[in-house]
Structures are given as C-alpha cells and as structure tokens.
Amino acid sequence: MAQVFACEFPDVYWFDVERDVWVMPQPSGQLRMGMTDPAQTRAGKVLHVRAKTGKTVVEGQNLATIESAKWVGPFPAPCEGLVVAVNPIVMTDPNEINRDPYGQGWIVELQPSSDVWRSTLMTGPKAIDAYREKLRAEGLTCMRCVPPSDDLSPESEE
Question: What UniProt keywords are attached to this protein's entry (predicted)?
Fold first, then answer.
C-alpha cells in the first residue's frame, strides 16, 4: 500500500482523483466504491450516509449523500451504471468510513454500463503521482477519526 502525506492508497484499487472516489472491481463485474483516505479526512467524522439500490447514474451524478460533523455533500459516481448494493455496515455505522475507508467502509456497488471507467480512472504509480500533487497543493495530511481504545486509557497499571 502506497502512502502520500500519511494518506493510504491500496495498490490494486482504481482512483477517480478529481472526485476522491476509489473503485475495486469485483469478480461479478460490479464495482465496489468508497471515499478515499483524503476524502474521509476532509469530511471528518461521518455521521450519516443516505444511499439506495436501483438508481441508475451517469458519471458525476450522486451515488449517495454523506453527512459529517462539518460537511454534507454528494458521493459522486466515477462512471455510469446501476447501483446494485449499499453497504449495510455503513448504513448502521457510518463512522466505519473513517476507520476503514478501503475495507468495511465501502459505500456502494455499481454495475457499470460499460468498461469506459478503465480509461478514465487511475491506478498504481500514475494515481499516486496525481495524489501527491493534489495533496501538496491542498496542504492535506490524512488522519483517521477512530474512537479511543480502552487499551490507551490514562490509567496506569500497578
């Protein structure tokens, strides 16, 4: 996994750098999508996610609405297709996006209408270079909104 300014980018994922969306092709041909590490950092603690299946979208259209303590906004589609799944974990615990944006924090799965996304999204070193430039320009360093662990309590053991 590559890191840029403490932001993580899994090597096998595809990225819509402009929209801060990651895409992971599934064996079924569907595309699993979520917010990138920089996107969840900018949003802060995610409080609510609204998304539904059965919605046909074009590139750039809203797949879901994300609400955080400091922001409400769209989760944009990086390509055209049909929303076929919504992550039930994120629907009940939206902060999972902050804790694990590339794993349990995925948001939707889309059945793409074509393979054009392969020519518009970036992966590997090309994506990392684009994010390095973008994050440097924004002055952004990533962090995760993770609840405190019981193991890190201020009490000392004797």
Answer: Lipoyl
- For the chain, what is the domain count? 1
HSE-up of residue 150 (Cα within 13 Å, Cβ side): 0
Q: What is the CA radius of gyration of the chain?
A: 16
Range 70-90 burial, b when 16+ CB lie within 10 A, else e: eeeeebbbbbbbebebbbeeb
Residue 86 belongs to a domain: yes
The CATH number that applies at residue 57 is: 2.40.50.100
Domain membership flag for residue 92: yes
Structure tokens at 116: 């054009």
pLDDT tens per residue across span 112-158: 999 999 999 999 999 999 999 999 999 999 987 655 444 444 443 33
End-to-end CA distance of the chain: 39
pLDDT digits (tens, 9 = 90+) for 5-58: 899 999 999 999 999 999 999 999 999 999 999 999 999 999 999 999 999 999
Instruction: Give the range of the structural domain holding residue 69, as residue numbers without chain letter.
Output: 2-134
CB 18 within 8 A of CB 28: no
